[in-house]
Amino acid sequence: MRFAFAIHGFAITILHFTGIKDYFETVIYSQILIVICVIIGLTSLMLDYKKNRSSESVNILKMFTILIIFAIFEIINFSFSFYEYYHYIFRWVLSSSVHTYLLNM
Questions:
Q1: pLDDT tens-digit series, residues 58-91
Q2: What is the pTM of this model?
């Protein structure tokens, strides 16, 4: 998984410079790769927690939860085109949730 994004970036660059695919035509491949890597990462963390019961795994899973919540916000923003107002809402939610998370660590 470590080299997946490097290989992907190289392939996208080659496709773009050779004119085979435009950048925006390859965005779906990037999104699919990100989803696959997040699923693999979450599965690995859950298996690690199940095996070792480490508090570090729990903290990382909490951080992943925050990232997933913001990803859902971004999908909603993109789907409904809340571009003007969503930026301010996103900043407020991000700053308050990160601040709360850091205080509770």
A1: 888 878 887 777 777 776 766 666 656 666 666 6
A2: 0.61
25: which DSSP letter?
A: G
Domains in the chain, number? 2
Residue 67: which region, alpha, beta or left (left: phi > 0; alpha: psi -120 to 50)? alpha
**Cα–Cα distance for residue pair 62/45, rounded to 1 Å:** 11
* Domain assignment of residue 32, given as a range: 1-52
d(CA 34, CA 27): 11
Same domain for 64 and 34: no
Tokens read off for 76: 């909603």
Q: What is the DSSP letter of 3?
A: T
